[in-house]
Amino acid sequence: MTAPSARTEELDLRGQVCPAALMHALKKMNVLRGELSSGTVALRILTENRESVPTISEAARNMGYAVAVDREEAHYVLLVESAGSVDRQ
Amino acid sequence: MTPLVEESERLRRENLRLAEERAVFIRYIREKVNELLVLMLCPAMNADALGDMELIGYDPIGTIAASFSRVLDNLKETNERLVREISERTQVEAALTESEDRLRDFVENAVELILSVTPDGRIEYANRAVLSTLSFAPGEVEGRSLYSIVTSGSEQGCRKAIGQMTAGRKAGRIEVEFRDNRGSSVIAEGTATGRFEDGRCVSVRMILQDVTARKKFEEEMQKAEKLESIGVLAGGIAHDFNNLLTGILGNLSIARIRATGAADVQQNLSKAEKACLRARDLTQQLLIFSKGGAPVRKATSIADILRESAEFSLRGSNVRCEFGLPDDLPPVDIDEGQIAQVLNNIIINADQAMPDGGTLRVEARTAEVGQGDPLPIRPGRYVRVTVSDTGIGIPEEALPRIFDPFYTTKEKGSGLGLTTAYSILRHHDGVITADSEPGKGTTFFLYLPVSKGAVPRDAKPAEESRKRRVLVMDDEEMVREVALDFLGHLGYEGEAVVSGEEAVVAYRGAREAGRPYSAVIMDLTIPGGMGGKEAVLRLRDLDPHVRAIVSSGYSNDPVMAAPEKFGFRGVIAKPYRMREFGEVIDQVLSGGGAGVRAGSA
Fold it and tell me: pTM surpassing 0.80?
């Protein structure tokens, strides 16, 4: 169960491959660090690169965020948000 | 080479060197970045995927360092959360352990027998009470079939109860008779409840109480109640019987006197008299059994009673009897009938303990009981009677119980024989004890206080008492006739009346006529009329010096045990023989104080 975060920012990484995509994602997560942790912002990452999906998800989880992955028609959507807004398993 | 060319060449070399140097740095940065990425559990970068310039442009070290600090923060948070969770879990576990300990303590140390069995009767769990009550060691019961530790009579009931649970019944009462590890029966009752999983009974829990003692007590109470009602009946029969015996015995005594000279008739009459006396003792036993009657004691030589009892009880037996009875044995104050009953009981027991024959030794000697003696009797001189057999003996564990009421090892025993013996000895201010060695034999010790009086000799009516007048009051014609016959033979002038009222009238009339009675013998109870107890008070009003003698078949009546308290000077218990009858009248008339006794009691 995910409580909706107040605001969602989007990072479109379509056209980029790993590890550039990871670098971009890490940079963005670092910028939004405070808001992501407190749960005021959720980060929506779009990527077409299949390899980037587990890489970015893994990095985000290591940083303590919750990650949900959805597959759209031509790309993937990774929703990164505060783990506090997700029930601990 | 011109300086310009030289300079250009230098710059080119310098440029090459710097490019190489840069490549080294970038390779270094790429390696370190990769190491960091791996540390962050991310895949390493390769040069194809990210060009050198782009690599630098992304500021990878800065980015990764910032990410790292976030990872570290996350790890710290996670750590703290884990520590918190662990401490919470530890607390929960401690609480659970405590709760489990408490429950286990309840079940393990419960007085109730708690056990759980599978639907097929296998014991899954049994608490400490089960083990101790049934004398099993820890671990000896779990895994066994319940049916292997219950009696065959109880097995069906247990199977039925467990069957009902497995058929869906939630709870029910259950009675189980266990066979403990030593083979004894333990009766327990309580509840059985089923434990269900998915609607299926997986085990049956039983919580039972050991009710063996209560059941035994109830059985004994029932037995005692039955015996008491028999006792009331026996007492009634004994009373009527005593009256009949008085008639028979009296007529026999008179017949013996009339048949003087005919030796063979005398022999028959003597045998008939002995049989009557035996019947008198039997009614006496019935009376003791019915009311635990107080003994009517007189100084007696125990030796004759010992010989008679042994001969009587061992008739037709293959047991040999030896006596050790010194001639100078002092007399004892006893109720002959009661002590004979004790001896008969012990000797019959001894005979039964020697089915293949053996030797019974009966001894008596004087014994001093001192202050520090463990026997529960007053210090003083006693005659100690020893009755020893060479029989099977009494098991050690049974010995302390042999005097208990209803304790018996015989299939048809009442368990009252030795209890009565004990009670009789205590009423005689004596005691009975036993010693036994299984396989060797048993010895009973009887302590009876030495009498201060002398054994009375056969009655020889004193000359001076002859032709004195004696009034007899009894509602039984047969008794009146015998008493008058006796009085005639003893040289008295007898008259008879049928009630207390008539006795008072006759006594007054005789006094007024100047022919007073020297003594009055009165029956204690007269159905529908004034008995001796009330009549003696009326007579004392007329004559404070009246010599009244009470006579009754109710030897256990308080008047018979202490006649002086009620105004009588003597006692004649029915049935009586002429000798005893005459003795009492003689002694009362010769001024013998209260408490002169004769007869069966």
Answer: no
Instruction: Tell me how far CA of residue A38 lies from CA of A79, A82, B311, in angstroms.
Output: 15, 7, 114
Q: Is the pLDDT of residue A50 over 50?
A: yes
The pLDDT tens digits of the residues spanning B89-138 come to 999 999 999 999 999 999 999 999 999 999 999 999 999 999 999 999 99
CA distance A54 to chain B (A): 9
The neighbour count for residue B137, using CB atoms within 10 Å, is 8
Helix (H), strand (E) at residue B87? helix B60-108
Q: Which of A22, A33, A55 sits opposite B70 (nearest CB)?
A: A33
Neighbours of B59 (CB within 10 A): 13
Across the strands, what pairs with B179? B185
- Rounded-to-integer distance, Cα B484 and Cα B168, Å: 85
Q: Is the peptide bond before B330 cis (omega within 30 degrees of 0)?
A: no
**Is residue A62 domain-resident?**
yes
Tell me: the pLDDT tens digits for B188-235? 999 999 999 988 889 999 999 998 878 877 776 675 566 566 666 777
What CATH code is carried by the domain that includes residue A72?
Answer: 3.30.110.40
Does A46 lie at the interface with B, CB-CB under 8 angstroms? no
Contact (Cβ atoms closer than 8 angstroms) between residue B365 and residue B447: no
| Strands B380-388 vs B431-437: parallel, antiparallel or unpaired | unpaired
- A interface test, pick of B38, B41, B42, B46 with most A CB neighbours within 10 Å: B42
ipTM of the complex: 0.80
* Residue B314 DSSP symbol: T
Q: What percent of chain B lies above the pLDDT cut of 70?
A: 89
Q: Coil, strand or helix: which one is B386? A: strand
Would A1 be classed as within a structural domain?
no
Dihedral (Cα; B402, B403, B406, B409), 10-degree rounding: 20
- State chain A's maximal CA–CA distance in angstroms: 35
Spell out which residues of chain B touch residue A22, defining contact as CB-CB under 8 Å.
37, 42
**In total, how many domains does chain A have?**
1
Closest CA to B67 of A10, A7, A36, A77: A36
How much is the CA Rg of chain B, to the nearest whole Å?
A: 51
Q: B402 vs B302, which has greater pLDDT?
A: B302
| B152 burial via Cβ count (<10 Å: 0-12, 13-18, 19+) | exposed
Establish if A78 belongs to a structural domain: yes
Residue predicted with more confidence, B293 or B85: B85
Q: Which domain holds residue A52?
A: 7-85
CB contact A33 to B (< 8 Å): yes
pLDDT of amino acid B461: 42
* B583 Cβ contact partners less than 8 Å away, ≥ 6 residues apart: B456, B459, B596, B598
| B49, B70, B78 member nearest A19 (Cβ) | B49
* Mean of pLDDT values over B439-448: 92
Q: Is A33 domain-assigned?
A: yes
Residues in chain A closer than 8 A to B45 (CB atoms): 18-19
pLDDT at B254: 87
In 3D, which of B211, B139, B124 has the Cα closest to residue B176? B211
Cβ-count burial B413-429 (b if 16+ within 10 Å, e if not) = eebbbbbbbbbbbebbb
Quote the tokens at residue B251: 């007529």
Using the Cβ of A22 and the Cβ atoms of chain B, whether some distance falls under 8 Å is answered with: yes
A17–B contact, CB cutoff 8 A: yes
Our CA dihedral for B141, B142, B146, B151, rounded to 10 degrees, sits at 0
- The residue ranking higher by pLDDT, B39 or A40, is A40
Secondary structure (H, E, C), B280-302: HHHHHHHHHHHHCCCCCCEEECH
